[in-house]
Design a protein that fits this description.
Elements lengths: L1 H45 L6 H24 L8 H23 L1 H8 L3 H28 L7 H30 L5
Length: 189
C-alpha cells in the first residue's frame, strides 16, 4: 500500500513539474515572438518603432509568471482529454479567450484601443500570439511527457524546480488578480 502512495505522489509531482516547465518555456518563447511581432507591426503601421526596456520587461514578466500558471492549469485539466494536441491546445486557447481576454478588453479599453490603432492587423497578431502560446504549450507538454523520466531518478530536481516554478505561477495568479480586480475597480491603470 505504501508503494502505491509513493507512486501516486511521484506521478502528481511529475504532472505538476511538467505543466509548470512547459508553461514557463512556452511563456518565454511567446514573449520573444510577441516582442518581435510588436516591432514588425510598429514598422509596418508607423514606419518606425523601437524596443523599450520597460515594455520588454513587462512582456517577459507576463510570460515568466503567467506561463507556468497556465501550464499547470492546462496539464491538470485539458491535457487529460483523449484528443490530438492541436485540438486540446486550441480548446485551451478558447477557454483563455472567453475567461480572460475578451473580458480584459472591456476592463482595459485602452488596450483594445492600442490593438485597433493598427486595425484588424492588431487583433490578428494578438490572436496569432495567443494561438502560438497554447499550441506551443500543448506540444511541449506532450513532448515532456514522452521524454521526462518516469522513475525517481530526478526526484530532487523535480521537487526543487516545482517549488520555484510554482512560486512563479503563484505570482502570476496574483498578477492576474491585481490586474483584473484593480482595473475593474479603477485602482490600476
Amino acid at each position: 500500500m505504501e508503494a502505491s502512495v509513493l507512486t501516486t505522489s511521484s506521478l502528481r509531482r511529475r504532472t505538476r513539474f511538467i505543466g509548470l516547465l512547459a508553461g514557463l518555456i512556452a511563456g518565454v518563447l511567446n514573449a520573444v515572438v510577441a516582442r518581435v511581432l510588436m516591432r514588425i507591426i510598429a514598422l509596418l503601421a508607423f514606419g518606425q518603432g523601437s524596443f523599450s526596456v520597460g515594455g520588454t520587461a513587462v512582456i517577459f514578466m507576463f510570460g515568466v509568471l503567467v506561463g507556468p500558471l497556465f501550464g499547470l492549469i492546462y496539464r491538470s485539466t485539458l491535457y487529460r482529454m483523449r484528443a490530438p494536441e492541436l485540438v486540446k491546445g486550441l480548446l485551451f486557447g478558447l477557454v483563455l479567450v472567453v475567461t480572460l481576454q475578451v473580458p480584459g478588453l472591456f476592463i482595459a479599453p485602452e488596450f483594445a484601443a492600442e490593438l485597433m490603432a493598427v486595425g484588424p492587423l492588431g487583433f490578428a497578431v494578438f490572436a496569432a500570439m495567443n494561438s502560438a502560446f497554447v499550441l506551443t504549450l500543448a506540444a511541449l507538454t506532450a513532448w515532456l511527457e514522452q521524454v521526462w523520466p518516469r522513475d525517481e531518478s530526478r526526484k530532487a530536481a523535480e521537487a526543487s524546480l516545482t517549488t520555484v516554478f510554482g512560486l512563479l505561477a503563484l505570482a502570476g495568479l496574483a498578477l492576474l488578480v491585481v490586474e483584473i480586480v484593480g482595473r475593474s475597480l479603477g485602482i490600476v491603470e
